[in-house]
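Tip: read the tokens left to right.
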């Protein structure tokens, strides 16, 4: 059985859930899946061949990740994989116009939430020698004048993944980030990459940022 927590739905999260379900079926395995619905899920997650728990919550709330992980671990009976897909977009047109509360929200959702999710999931992932994938963005390594707050906070998410990969490697936990090129990359391509990083064939990969560009 694979036990996974997908923190954040949207197109990428929905595509990943479907890919995990297909991969589990191909292996003749079961999938137990907890999903953190940080936004409405209308039209998403329908018809999944998995035991499914959907939990609402605000990724900007510092108490939410620990509560979410505790419920996910209880439902799944442990945890093998965590996908941190809590990122936010939409911001002032320039850093000059950014207010303090704008930065606080970007940092809370794009950097703090993945860190807190990882910390809360650590005991379960240590037991399973599991894996974490953190959603970042190409803006985290390639500055874009129209995405100042996103670029800065996504860079933080990438570094969180790299640091966790070093800290937790002795415990057998893999941590990687995935950086699509804005909204130009197909959700299926993101899902296949994340599914690989969370699956049984990527045990040798950790501390990497996977950049995805439109084909």
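Filled-in amino acids:
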């Amino acid at each position: 059985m694979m036990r996974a927590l997908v923190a954040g739905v949207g197109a990428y999260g929905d595509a990943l859930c479907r890919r995990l379900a297909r991969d589990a079926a191909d292996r003749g395995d079961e999938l137990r899946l907890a999903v953190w619905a940080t936004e409405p899920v209308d039209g998403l997650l329908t018809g999944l061949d998995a035991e499914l728990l959907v939990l609402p919550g605000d990724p900007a709330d510092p108490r939410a990740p620990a509560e979410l992980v505790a419920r996910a671990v209880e439902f799944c009976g442990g945890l093998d994989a965590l996908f941190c897909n809590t990122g936010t977009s939409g911001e002032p047109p320039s850093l000059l116009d950014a207010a303090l509360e704008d930065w606080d929200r970007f940092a809370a959702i794009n950097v703090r939430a993945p860190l807190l999710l990882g910390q809360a999931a650590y005991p379960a992932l240590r037991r399973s020698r599991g894996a974490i994938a953190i959603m970042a963005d190409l803006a985290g390594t390639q500055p874009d004048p129209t995405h100042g707050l996103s670029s800065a906070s996504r860079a933080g998410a990438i570094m969180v993944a790299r640091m966790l990969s070093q800290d937790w490697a002795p415990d057998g936990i893999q941590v990687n980030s995935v950086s699509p090129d804005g909204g130009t990359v197909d959700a299926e391509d993101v899902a296949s990459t994340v599914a690989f990083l969370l699956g049984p064939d990527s045990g040798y990969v950790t501390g990497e940022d996977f950049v995805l560009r439109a084909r």
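The longest helix spans residues 100-128. The chain has one domain: 2-212.
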